[in-house]
Write a structure and sequence with these properties.
Elements: H1 29-33, H2 55-75, H3 85-98, E1 102-103, E2 116-119, E3 122-124, E4 138-147, E5 150-159, H4 165-184, E6 189-190, H5 192-204, E7 208-209, E8 215-217, E9 224-228, E10 240-241, E11 246-249, E12 252-254, E13 260-262, E14 270-272, E15 278-280, E16 283-288, E17 291-294, H6 311-314
Helix pairs in contact: 4-5
């Protein structure tokens, strides 16, 4: 169901219907009043909900997400004992800008790096620095790339050498719950279905789902509607996933309590409240007329149904 409020032309100081992030009066208002809206975007009356992507916009999102997936495949080989998270950041930054793209996190609301690096007890938004990866660490790399104005967003939890059985089980739960949520969806599903399946799986395996941070709509903007909680939240859960909407599913699963603590020094890094491990996976999803399409599939990363093993168990 479309929201009736989305069908009106925005006010002068409201966000423009095109998703640029600018105020309407500083973006398309003049062209719309003159009847000369650019051909790149339809006039607002032809776009009842600008969050529902046209075919051209879907193609642009597929391209951005494909580039981001290639970046994930590139950086995964560098996740080895001895490398610092700052060195990983430089590799990501250089790869991105050399190809003419933009690291979306760099400067976003003051964030100082080109990706988020979240090892062990860091839940999300870890700032790269002088931390040197050690044997037995797990680390989440959260990458977002802007390609021709569109955002591709994903994350993976990777092993640094041999890790504990507990770390493997936690990582597996985050991965499996993400895919279970994707696979339950169909056109016009409610958002609450995502949180319900993730919470059920985490509880069955003895883990907890982080509640303070969630998935989000994505497109020309990094973060937009719909909100995607990973627990069955009755308020946001009422949102409908119509064909054309693009969003992320990114469950953060904790070994202990679901509660988190924000670093008071950098105001970004989020830790588990009890110091236990956290793992996360994320894909960008496009809801199509036939069901969810995963846009950020890698060539070399874990695919649907993957079973994680510690390198020690493989050798």
């Amino acid at each position: 169901m479309k929201n009736e409020a989305d069908k009106r032309v925005p006010g002068p100081n409201e966000p423009c219907w095109c998703g640029s992030g600018k105020k309407y009066k500083k973006c398309h208002q003049s062209a719309d009043l003159a009847g000369g809206a650019t051909t790149a975007q339809p006039k607002p009356e032809a776009r009842a909900n600008p969050l529902l992507l046209t075919e051209l916009e879907r193609t642009a999102m597929r391209k951005a997400c494909s580039v981001n997936a290639d970046l994930m495949d590139y950086i995964r080989d560098f996740v080895q004992p001895g490398i610092t998270t700052q060195e990983i950041d430089k590799l990501v930054h250089d790869w991105t800008v050399q190809r003419g793209h933009i690291p979306a996190t760099l400067g976003y609301r003051g964030f100082p790096a080109s990706l988020c690096t979240s090892p062990n007890q860091v839940v999300c938004h870890g700032i790269p620095g002088d931390y040197k990866l050690r044997q037995g660490d797990i680390i989440n790399l959260d990458l977002t790339t802007i390609v021709e104005g569109w955002h591709g967003d994903q994350s993976e939890t990777l092993f640094v050498g041999a890790v504990s059985e507990e770390a493997v089980a936690l990582t597996q739960c985050s991965f499996d719950s993400m895919w279970a949520a994707i696979d339950v969806l169909k056109p016009f599903s409610k958002v609450i279905e995502i949180g319900s399946v993730i919470s059920k799986m985490a509880k069955q395996r003895g883990f907890e789902v982080v509640k303070e941070y969630q998935g989000h709509g994505i497109g020309r903007r990094f973060h937009q509607k719909p909100d995607i909680p990973h627990f069955p939240d009755a308020f946001h859960g009422r949102q409908i996933l119509e064909p054309g909407v693009c969003f992320t599913i990114e469950p953060m699963i904790n070994q202990g309590t679901w509660k988190t603590v924000l670093d008071r020094r950098d105001h970004w890094t989020v830790y588990t409240a009890d110091g236990k491990l956290s793992a996360q996976f994320e894909h960008t999803i496009l809801m199509t007329e036939t069901g969810p399409e995963v846009l950020t599939m890698t060539r070399r990363g874990p695919q649907r149904g993957h079973k994680f093993l510690s390198p020690a168990a493989v050798s």
